[in-house]
């Protein structure tokens, strides 16, 4: 499985409550009734930046563009993404729903480290710190992954201890992603292939996130390993709440979406949709039967 990430924000001057409604309700409804999306994305999560979080919870500081949202899409391989953007139903149904800013951070990654500590975390609870980390000068992808998944993640696990503060740590490493794939889509203005890795850290609350950051910064070995592969000045952090919209990656999953079931109202409604520019076009009939 690989991860397709999008960090974005509402349009300049737009109402954030409306952004949350459109992204959280309308956009999800469109995804659930778009066959290629449901066939391609095995898991879909939304993240929203928490208000009034102190700077001490941001290991790499906030991004100058003030990103508010992170979408994470889990899929089997990049061909699933190509099938979605290159198919018929996504451009027709999803593409016109433009509710956020035209700028994005876009990354494709694979998970190289996944550690849980103590009691773990229930989805949707606590806070999550997501670090988009840029490579240090001269560090290539192989070196970043080797150190990151080895000594660096091991040191994070040591600092986590019994999970009093940090409950889960996931490290993602960048995969190749051709920006040409997004030509003609909402994402073509986004920044692609900027960050060598994405760190995900789950905490029971923001105070636990602050304590762990202090412990991490006070540890000389961790700082040395970090600076050997990460350019802190070009990296940024977000402190967010996570919503797992659907997840078909685990053993206990919900039934498949109704749009995939012939005879369902969702599948029937989809079948009556028209292509753009043809919604009011007369369809010839022969002997009372539509052709």
TrEMBL record:
Gene3D superfamilies: 3.30.70.100. This is EthD domain-containing protein. InterPro entries: Dimeric_a/b-barrel, EthD_dom. GO terms for molecular function: oxidoreductase activity. It comes from the Bacteria. The lineage of its organism: Bacteria, Bacillati, Actinomycetota, Actinomycetes, Micrococcales. Residues 137-224 form the EthD domain.
């Amino acid at each position: 499985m690989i991860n397709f990430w999008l960090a974005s924000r509402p349009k300049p001057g737009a109402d954030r409550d409306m952004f949350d409604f459109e992204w959280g309700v309308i956009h999800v409804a469109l995804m659930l009734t778009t066959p290629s999306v449901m066939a391609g994305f095995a898991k879909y999560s939304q993240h929203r930046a928490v208000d009034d979080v102190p700077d001490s919870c941001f290991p790499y500081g906030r991004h100058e563009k003030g990103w508010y949202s992170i979408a994470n899409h889990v899929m089997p391989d990049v061909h699933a993404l190509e099938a979605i953007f290159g198919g018929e139903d996504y451009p027709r149904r999803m593409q016109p729903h433009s509710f956020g800013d035209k700028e994005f951070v876009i990354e494709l990654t694979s998970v190289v480290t996944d550690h849980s500590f103590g009691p773990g975390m229930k989805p949707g609870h606590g806070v999550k710190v997501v670090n988009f980390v840029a490579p240090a000068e001269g560090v290539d992808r192989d070196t970043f992954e080797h150190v990151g998944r080895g000594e660096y993640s091991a040191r994070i696990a040591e600092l986590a201890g019994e999970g009093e503060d940090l409950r889960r740590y996931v490290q993602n490493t960048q995969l190749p992603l051709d920006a040409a794939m997004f030509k003609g889509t909402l994402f073509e203005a986004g920044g692609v292939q900027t960050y060598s890795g994405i760190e995900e850290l789950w905490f029971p609350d923001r105070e636990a996130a602050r304590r762990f950051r202090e412990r991490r910064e006070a540890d000389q070995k961790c700082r040395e390993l970090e600076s050997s592969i990460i350019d802190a000045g070009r990296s940024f952090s977000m402190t967010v709440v996570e919503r797992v919209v659907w997840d078909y990656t685990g053993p206990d999953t919900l039934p498949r979406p109704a749009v995939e079931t012939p005879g369902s109202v969702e599948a029937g409604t989809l079948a009556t949709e028209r292509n753009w520019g043809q919604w009011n076009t007369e369809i010839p009939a022969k002997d009372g039967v539509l052709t």
